[in-house]
Amino acid sequence: MGARLVVSALLLWVLVVKIGDNWQQAAPDARPATFAWLFGALVLTFGAVVLSAVRWSAVLQALGLHPPFQRLLSLYFAGQFMGNVLPSTIGGDALRVSRLSKDNGESPTTFASVVLERMSGWVVLPVLTLFALLINPGLRDLGRASMIAFVTATATLTLLVVVLILTSRQGKGVEAKLEHNEGWRRFTGAVRFGIRKLSHEPAATGRILASGLAYQLILIGSALMAAKALDLPTAVGPTALLAFVPAVLIAQVLPISISGLGVREGLFVLFLHPLGVPQSQAIALGLLMYLLNLVVSLFGAPAFAVGHKVRPAAPAP
Question: What total number of domains does the chain contain?
């Protein structure tokens, strides 16, 4: 944690020094339209968390668990509060596993549901980047920005394939030992357990991937509204954000900084500068997206404080 605090501070300091006295470029005019775009971005960010809970519910149902959606939504907001406000990288997911396991007594399956819910998002993100680069040829001619976006997407997909291959080579019965495994073996066991379950539930798999796609598109819509609020150049349109926002979302979860601070802003400078965006505005976009997520995460404070009580699980239909 200490090292990540230092890295975040250094990265932000470097970016601020590079901006110098150009912060006035980053401050949008206080117009009604600006506040309308900001409010829209906030609403979409809130909606993305709700949709995440929908995706988690779909995974749980495919694994044979049927907790009340209100409980899942409360746990998801509590996890967002723990992960973004306290802060922590995986603390929010650990909280969801811990509290829901107390409700249903199914710790291995609950752990697997959180792993699969996260992985469904990692499947969608690189596909969006590659799709945007495919349909907009101009985005492929931005030099280093295009190359890094492409490499990030392809490396993520490659890593997912490697995980699936390693998981498929695990011996039979790995899923039964989830509760006793730790680290990598517990993760791969959870993936194997979930994949075997989902292979018999194609409709559920489709719902999970569809909700994951909708979630990422909502986040990109929020980023677009934030860009409008900051009055970024018109070149920063839907396809540009479709290509670069997923790459930023992938990189910002690396455990080298606090909540992606510094990493997210630096990547926006890298990706958006070739589109004519000043460094100050690119950094402002990254900070604004962080603040939007932080504000929405505050809604989880009550659930975090009082959500430790065990709730009875809903009977399976």
Answer: 1
In a domain, 100, yes or no: yes
Asked whether residue 312 is domain-assigned, the answer is: no
Asked if the structure places residue 110 within a domain, the reply is: yes
pLDDT at 183 > cutoff 70: no
Q: State both tokens at 47.
A: 């909606």
Nearest Cα residue to 227 out of 289, 290, 142, 292: 289
What's the whole-model pTM score? 0.83
* Residue 53 reports pLDDT greater than 60: yes
Predicted pLDDT at 9:
77
Cβ distance 187 to 249 under 8 Å? no
- What pLDDT digit, counting tens, does each position of 113-153 carry? 888 888 888 889 999 999 999 999 999 999 999 999 999 99
Q: How confident is the model over 106-124, as pLDDT tens digits? A: 888 888 888 888 888 888 9
